[in-house]
Amino acid sequence: MRSEINTRVNSQTNLVTVSVLLLGGIIAVGPFLVNFDSHGIHLRLPPSYFVLLLLLISTLFTSLLWATMSHGIHIASIAGFLHSQIRKKAILILGKKTTVLDWEIYRHKLLFPKQLLLNLIAVFMSIAQYFVMVVPAIVSLIAAVVVYLSNFTIPPENWIEWFVIVFFIFNMLYLLATIPCSIYFLRAYQEISVNDI
């Protein structure tokens, strides 16, 4: 179990690193996609392709977010198993209430401190790795809407515009579906040691 936890933590770190590199690459390529002149900023790509590119960026970062959260949920389930099954059996074998595998209780106190300021700091530190994925996904969705609404009509006039709208709806649902998943993720950690604290 320890090797699986280490593998999943390393995978999460790698996914965050990939997100940061992708974000840097997108920022570096951005100026090559637009023209700056005295009349303002103009796209070098047709607007429909630019909107599709923004939606692909949103899909990519949302997928990275899902993968990172999946590893976190698996880590929480392993920790829950260690805490609820192995820890209890070890205490029964020893025949007394003793300090056995109290890491999850200790970690719970670190993740969810009782002081408000410490709790806010812990929350921000815990979710910071997800911001690298959530913020680009949301920003690219908003940019796609702005570019679409400034260049196309509603209802769409051709199949590419219809595809863009369907792809946008998919991206919105895909991103919004991370909310219940993240709530489940938080509850998985909170439930590990609630009865023992």
Question: Would you kindly provide a written description of the structure presented here, covering whatever features stand out?
Answer:
The chain has helices at 2-29, 47-94, 103-111, 116-151, 159-176, 178-190; strands at residues 34-37, 40-43. It is mainly α. It has one domain (2-190). It has a two-stranded antiparallel sheet with strand order 1-2. A hairpin with a 2-residue loop joins strand 1 and strand 2 (40-43). The protein starts with a helix and ends in a 7-residue tail after the last helix. The model has no long low-confidence stretch (mean pLDDT 81).
Number of separate strands: 2
Strand share of the residues? under 5%
Distance between the termini: 24 Å
Largest sheet: 2 strands, antiparallel
- Give the number of domains: 1
